[in-house]
Automatic annotation (TrEMBL):
PROSITE patterns given in the database record: PROKAR_LIPOPROTEIN (PS51257)
InterPro entries attached to this UniProt entry: 6-hairpin_glycosidase_sf (IPR008928), 6hp_glycosidase-like_sf (IPR012341), Glyco_hydro_88 (IPR010905), PolySaccharide_Degr_Enz (IPR052043)
Lineage: superkingdom: Bacteria
GO biological process: carbohydrate metabolic process
Gene3D superfamilies per UniProt: 1.50.10.10
Source lineage: Bacteria, Pseudomonadati, Bacteroidota, Sphingobacteriia, Sphingobacteriales
Signal peptide: 1-24
A molecular-function term among this protein's GO annotations: hydrolase activity
Source organism: Sphingobacterium humi
Entry keyword set: Hydrolase, Signal
The protein's name in its UniProt record: Glycoside hydrolase family 88 protein
Amino acid sequence: MKRDLRYNLMACLLLAGFLFSACASKKGPASTQISKEEVLKQMQLANSYFMQKWPDTGKPIYTTRWRPSNIWTRAVYYEGLMDLYKIDPNKKYYDYAVAWGENHDWNLRNGIETRNADDQACGQIYLDLYEIDPQPERLAAIKANIDGIIESKLVNDWTWIDAIQMAMPVFAKLGVMYKDESYFNAMHQFYLYSRNVEGGGLYNAEDDLWWRDKDFVPPYKEPNGEDCYWSRGNGWVVAAYVRVLDLLPKDHAYAAVYRTDFKNMMKALLACQRPDGFWNVSLHDPNHFGGAETSGTALFVYGMAWGIQHGLLDEATYREPMERAWQAIAQQAIHPSGFLGYVQGTGKEPKDGQPVSFSSIPDFEDYGLGCFLLAGTAYYNYLASK
């Protein structure tokens, strides 16, 4: 009997060890400590690749047709570049951003009458550059545009969740710069419209995630029967929270709303992370174009790193997923040249911009890099604070 017990005990220990190893193998990249210097070098590599490929900041972008280079995709890149400039004040970064603004006369893609949030994204960079060197022309067009929108009293423009990131930080920045609550009030009404009104509300409080637009509100379903939550679309909302909360006074009433939504959303995203550290393009259907994807993953790293550093997210809970995600990008997505792989092309849902692979080239190379630079600078700042 004792011999049988010993054999049974040994078998149980061996089985437990096997199961532990199997679970550990699903974790993906090892969560080893990385230095802020290494993070910076990775960002510099990726950014240098892009700047060398696009030396002319005014050159139109061609995919299926020509587009001016002050569209939202390029604006997202410059958001990341300006954050990189804050931790690595290389004059060529500043000059590159200024040249971009000058090449477009500091204007919006469709002029100061536009109500399209995508057109307003460039304003985030114009305002950043104005704060560094307050030349009136850097501010004039974006301020006139937002002032006209506020005067109209209409708040139903943000009918897709990408718009929250493209425009919301512009309102916040102007409100802080001018100490004017009208910018905050309008911003909040736009946000609430997207959250609670458009399509019955694009935010699902049951899952704490966002449908990209009303076309994806149920009864629309993914192939597995789950709701369709697009990774990068939800990433845009995460980025908006970070950028707005970084600007708003902590005791502002609206900040409390955004903090709550941010924390609930980040908790929901934890459950969607892939074993290898990435997130799928479809957050609730891992088999619908499942696989590594860089842009959404980077935006979630951005949220986690900023949230931990600013005390909104529990470090013990979020640090390991954040590190795994960063290392997944750093180890698996960055080419030796600095080109970023696994970036989904433009679109609005999981099936768009496919295929996504290490060597696939998205229709626009800029926004994925912007997401990466936002993530990297937030992660760098987190590491620097330790």
